[in-house]
Amino acid sequence: MSKSRLAASALPFIAAALTACGSPAETSRPEQPPAAAQPTAPAALTREAVESAVFETAPAPVEGQPARPDAATARAQILLDRANFSPGVIDGLGGDNTRQAIAAFEKAAGLPQDGVLDAEVFRRLTAGDDGRVLTDYTITAADMAGPFIGQGPANLADMAKLQTVGYATPLEMLAEKFHMTEGLLQALNPGVDFGKTGQTIVVAAVAQTDLAADVAHIVVDKAERSVRVYDASARLLAFYPATIGSSARPAPSGELSVVGVAPEPNYTYDPDRVSYDRGDRKVIVPPGPNNPVGSVWIDLSRDTYGIHGTPDPSKVGKTFSSGCVRLTNWDAEQLASKVKPGVRVTFR
After folding, report:
1. Which of 69, 117, 227, 245 could form a disulfide with 240 if both were Cys (CB 3.0 to 4.6 A apart)?
2. What is the mean pLDDT of the chain?
């Protein structure tokens, strides 16, 4: 996470130890179609194809065949991300999160809101940002410092024994650094060793920028599974897809406020404060990007509830949570860098 961005915000941080809402594991949303499958061996996707992509209807998936990243969809997702209409994780496949980001972009642009990537949406996106959507990145020694923990434990008690809940592999770390799925990163870099310092790779040219102004109001839309962020003049600053509660463990309703922010939080399960079935002993899981609450926690004015990151960015918007609001780590970090105590948070 970008510690400097959060430090620069001059926001008083809450204590890093949290009694976080709910379970670290997101359960699937049975009423939603399954997410598009990632190719076992991703088909290569050239940077030339993505950079020069023009709008065309993406080919329908072939039954029984893995979904393949589409160049125009990847380009549109990167442009949406740079415009702060987050599609969540950039995968080149589209889906619900991308449709919602497009609909939010259409509303802001005064277009009919159908959430469809059509010729006019593509024209507006590319006219507003004609920069290259891919860039070269050279893997550094700092990138490879890890620690990388391999397949981490699912059990909270075992997770608590770790020194940090780090990324599983360098591939996972690099994919998240550039807001991408591992599948898309591999498709753009076939045969590359992602664990090699000095290796140059092709990545999404996403901007790690702050929001244009301080956040005055956050709207959490439980039906849409989204978070909209506004400044003091009610100007939309950003749109994020989100995982928000479940029917069994719903998110709050009505008006709350931001209490503070914990960068690189730990996760505390305290059976005296939460009622989820995770045992009868207090457990503290150390910080790390694959911590159950991800890389940042925005504390809200209802005990144990917050807006936070996630160890599974590809599941945002496609799963249930246990009451809190999950964003991708990079979206949560961007939001956290511009919130202050007292910011209004409306759940509807």
Report:
1. 227
2. 86
Q: CA 342, CA 259: separation in Å to the nearest integer?
A: 6
Task: Using alpha carbons, list the distances in angstroms from residue 188 to 131, 183, 279.
Answer: 18, 9, 43
Tokens of 115: 């959430």
> Could you tell me the pTM of the whole model?
0.87
Token pair recorded at residue 72: 């125009």
d(CA 343, CA 202): 38
H or E segment and range at residue 82: helix 71-82
Q: What is the Cα–Cα distance from 306 to 287, expressed in whole angstroms?
A: 16
The predicted model gives 116-129 an average pLDDT of 94
Write the pLDDT tens digit of every residue in 225-264. Answer: 999 999 999 999 999 999 997 655 678 899 999 999 999 9
Q: Amino acid identity of 179?
A: H
Q: Which two tokens stand for residue 325?
A: 């609001």
Say if CB 301 and CB 339 are below 8 A apart. no
- String of DSSP letters for 96-143: HHHHHHHHHHHHHHT--------HHHHHHHHHH--S-SEEEEEPPTTG
Residue 50's H or E segment, with its range, is: helix 47-51
**Taking Cα atoms as reference points, which of 328, 293, 318, 264 lies closest to residue 7?**
264
Which has the closest alpha carbon to 70: 96, 97, 42? 42
Please name which of 82, 111, 87 lies closest in space to residue 101, comparing C-alpha atoms. 87
Q: Any idea what DSSP says for residue 85? A: B
**How many CB atoms are located within 10 Å of the residue 285 CB?**
27
Q: How many CB atoms lie within 10 A of CB 283?
A: 17
pLDDT for 49 beyond 60:
yes
Nearest C-alpha neighbor of 243 from the set 257, 264, 226, 255: 226
Neighbours of 158 (CB within 10 A): 12
